[in-house]
Give the backbone structure.
Amino acid sequence: MRIVALAGGIGGARFLRGLKDVVSPEDEITVIGNTGDDIHLFGLKVCPDLDTVMYTLGGGIHEEQGWGRADETWSIKAEMKEYGVGPEWFGLGDRDFATHLVRSQMLTAGYSLSQVTEALCVRWQPGVRLLPMSDDRVETHVRITDADGTRAIHFQEYWVRLHAAVDAEAIIPVGADTAKPAPGVLEAIAAADVILLPPSNPVVSIGTILAVPGIRQAVSQASAPVVGLSPIIGGAPVRGMADKVLAAVGVEATADAVALNYGGRAAQRAGSDEGGAGRAAGLLDGWLVDTADQDAVAAVEAAGIRCRAVPLLMTDAEATAAMARAALELAEQVRV
Ligand code: FO1
């Protein structure tokens, strides 16, 4: 079976680890990774979401943090501080720097981000095919207003330096409108037997992937069943600050609101939906909510999206595997 997952950082990577535990050896998993979190620092290109998937599935992740390397040291960071060269707020460890050095050296030599990612994965053997959503530069910025006035700042500054403490007025995936899907992305979606939307941030992770022209349409028109898992449990994000960016796009931080924002596609699959002018094409056939959100099931089903309530807290490997199993089961139930 060919499984395609659109994934962001920590939540997505952890889910994928559980997915790997439940699939058979002959199944292929293709991950389309978000690159909107990418940031250029010290002349290097850092790809947080691609690296989190690669390190998590490859066994190098710092487990508690969910990002960066295990057994990290910080000599380079300390030396940069001595030189007074910032930013200090983004923690790049010595081992992690090697990834960014190899990536940046290859990009400078003319390799594409896809080729670089493939090369880095030769070392890490994540057990999935990891494709960047695009080889073109896309960087998510956030418009905020604070004492310094209204301005757009890089997503990482909003997330890491400000801890999303100020309201996000707008989320702008800079470059998305002219970006092209990376080689193999549209083909993987079209050839998929199952498409999964893991519990990643629906705005800045999965939303950014869908903002690359062609990707949302490809998912919406895919013959494979599309099943998502709610990143919101009991009205709050499990980790991170998804509620802050959901507010920026006018979506309530509830399990059903996130599903409705992705939209259902039962109507268009039945051929009865002429696709309202300007309305984004619906994506979902199925949606998993946590047992705490049992009362959200009816609203999701009313939108033509099959919905089930199962435990969605990735407390350990078994819980995560059970979630992945539930998602694959729901995919079979909604397969037309
Ligand atoms: N997140 C933090 O909260 N603090 C950090 O200092 C930090 C550094 C960092 C370095 C490399 C990397 O790949 C990720 C890093 N992250 C850090 C996490 C990052 O902000 C998030 O993983 C994603 O961008 C959001 O999913």
In short: The mean pLDDT is 95. The two ends are 16 Å apart (CA to CA). The pocket of FO1 is lined by residues 8-10, 37, 46, 48-49, 51-52, 67-68, 90-92, 96, 156, 159-160 (CB under 6 Å). Residues 270 and 336 are 10 Å apart (CA to CA).
